[in-house]
Amino acid sequence: MSAEQKLIAIEEISEANAPAIYVAGGLQQFIDLVKGEIEGEVPDLTTRKGRERIASLAAKVSKSKTAVEKPGRDYLRRLKEMPKVVEAELREFVTKMDALRDETRRPLTEWEAAEDARIDRHNDAINRMKDLAAELGTLDAEQLQARLSELSAFQLGETWEEFEAEAGRTKEASLNAVQAALVARQKYDAEQAELARLRREAEERAEQDRIRLAQEAAVEAERQRVAQEQQAAREAAARREQELLDQAAAQEREAENQRLQLKLQAEQAERARIQAEADRVAAEQRMEQERQDAARRQEEAAEQARQEERRRADAAAAEILRQQEARERDKAHRASINRAALEAFVAGGMTEECAKQAITLIAQRKIPNIAITY
């Protein structure tokens, strides 16, 4: 290569000197030229200016590549007789220049990748803390406690770098939200357990009352049945005694007429038999009617016991519902007062987060001489 070729600058490439440049090995001078301009550079990756300098050098390599490649392509089109030589030289040139550009930018590329990974790592951890404080209403106490443990495991410190403050705020807000949800859930579980206990006690009392009433009704029915049977027996005996007396009187009055007396006695005996049979049938019918009446009264007593049991159960359920509604109204009333206090704090210049914490501490009576009137 002659001294004239070595002195040609990239911006001086023209149609006139193209034949002397675009030959085998002719473009190496430009690669050496560009490489010489950047090899002495040692930018500082720890500063923004240093990183921008690396990006600028890589862009300069690309610009130089284009400045050499474009005239060469134009020259190649004019020199149909040398396409293979020029194309091979250009391919080698482009490959080397691309490699040089990539190698020049490699420290910045690696730094950017590491920086992106570092930022993503911090953001992922912060987002995880936020996720742990989301959708808490469907979790039970054990699940909420597990979230509290996972949040508490996040350690704050210098390892968070510039994200330390945001991580601290996110952890505190998430812990407060999960703790509040846990307290509310534990209170709800206790209330449900108390309601279940009250229901069981009401059901047990109702069952005991039903059994007692049924037993009392059965005893009363048996007593009435025995009394009715005894009364029927007494009445039958009295009737039989009266009949015997009547027969004796008739015999005594009609002693003189034996034949008529015998006939009368026969007629009286037949009437007595028929009457006795009728009395027996009537007594059995009365006893059956009385048994049916006793059974009906027993059923009515049992139905009354069931009605009383249902009324007591309904009254107990209504009382439980009334107490629960009262608690909900009180909760809404307190929330309304706390919200008004929060808005007043914020209007006074406090941040919403600080205002929430202040209201919580006052409501928990942790601030001496200050209280919220509900």
Brief write-up:
With 374 residues, this protein is mainly alpha-helical. It contains 9 helices and no strands.
Account of the 3D structure:
It is a single chain. The protein folds into two domains: 3-128, no CATH class; 165-363. Helix content is 82%, strand content 0%. The radius of gyration is 56 Å and the shape is rod-shaped. Helix 4 (48-78) packs antiparallel against helix 5 and helix 8 (258-347) crosses helix 9. The chain is an all-alpha fold and 374 residues long. It has helices spanning 3-6, 18-21, 28-39, 48-78, 83-132, 141-152, 164-253, 258-347, 352-363. The chain has nine helices and no strands.
Tell me the series of helices and strands, N- to C-terminal.
HHHHHHHHH
Sheet/helix structural class? mainly alpha
Largest sheet: none
Q: For the residues shown, what is the average pLDDT?
A: 84
Can you give the helix content as a percent range?
A: over 70%
Which spans of ≥5 residues are poorly predicted at pLDDT below 50?
A: 1-5
DSSP helical segment count: 9
Write down the Rg: 56 Å
Strand content: under 5%
SS elements, strand count: 0
Count structural domains: 2
Shape: rod-shaped
Give the terminus-to-terminus CA distance: 97 Å
